[in-house]
Amino acid sequence: MGYCKIQCVHKTRSIWKIMLILCVPLSCVLIFRSLVFTFFVHLMPMSKCSLESGKMLTLDNAVDASLDLLSRPDVQTCTSWKAPIIWEGMFDPYLYDKEHKEEGSSVALIVFAVGRYLDVYLESFLNSSEHHFMLALPVTYYVFTDIPEKVPDIKLAPQRSLKVIKVERHSRWQDISMMRMKTISEVIEEDIRHHCTYVFCFDVDQVFSGRFGSEALGDTVALLHAHFYHLPKNLFTYDRNPKSTAYMETGDFYYHAAVFGGSWKSVKALTETCYQNIMEDKKNNVEALWHDESHLNKYLWLHKPSRVLSPEYCWDNSIGYSRDIQVTRLLWAPKYYDTLRTF
Ligand code: UDP
Ligand code: GAL
Ligand code: MN
């Protein structure tokens, strides 16, 4: 008996030793591979803005003419359809705040916190937003949740208010995410269009970490996905199923659905169309690869955004150091899919 016990302990120890010996070089190989990948990705040339001056842009507002498109030769500062891509160093925040205050701009921030996402993310999302999101302008939060009584009591600055609206909890997480399109278009029609000039829609699993200000306001605003802005188009994760209305062969950029916005009119048109296409897919028993994000990408391919935000506006720290990113304004929060998503 005793002999067998000693033998078993020895065996387990040896297995642990072998695993440890294997783990160290394996982790080194993985870290090295990811460093090499990041290095080569950044060696690949990004397309460059062909305009010399902000005056040549299709302007969302008068201040856009002052954008310094040449101040960031390392990155792409405008699109082929003459919309600016906003990076740190290109704009004067003071001029944007002044212009929007004079125009009387106001912003609706829409966020969904359904099921366990409320407990885990909402408080830090809202608190950080109070420190960084559109501080110069009146802001109304529209928080959609299935448990209104659980929404934390956040101390809001003057000119900022918060509305909590109850929504049903779809059983599939894919539907919780996709059906936001319907709810957003409805709340714009019923409420927002009477009170706010601009609308921004955010995923709740993120935290503001730097200025996310009025330089981001425009007619239709889309965000470059942090994981794809430096990759060749053939690696973009568009929906490739011809049976889906979100199907795309090619596109301009890969946009991230965690942040989009614009004038209430444009966001209403965008969300209505995406919702119709999602429902059309359901009728045909198909679901786009990245759900609402695939439909958003299709819409923005057919209706070009008037303003594009660099990945500073939604950065994932797990990507590691990138010299393109001089400021992080909004950061991905950790994902806990296993415990948060029900189905
Ligand atoms: N969401 C939610 N509850 C859920 C699933 C999703 O409130 O059970 C909302 C939440 O705002 C979340 C967004 O839908 O940020 C998109 O889902 P998720 O962030 O999980 O998608 P990912 O960014 O990981 O693709
Ligand atoms: C992931 C992200 C998803 C989706 C996907 C697209 O990095 O977590 O939300 O955007 O990229 O390929
Ligand atoms: Mn998310």
Automatic annotation (TrEMBL):
GO terms for cellular component: Golgi apparatus; membrane; vesicle. The chain crosses the membrane at residues 20-43. Keywords: Glycosyltransferase, Manganese, Membrane, Metal-binding, Signal-anchor, Transferase, Transmembrane, Transmembrane helix. It is a single-pass type II membrane protein. It is found in: Membrane. Belongs to the glycosyltransferase 6 family. This is Alpha 1,3-galactosyltransferase 2.
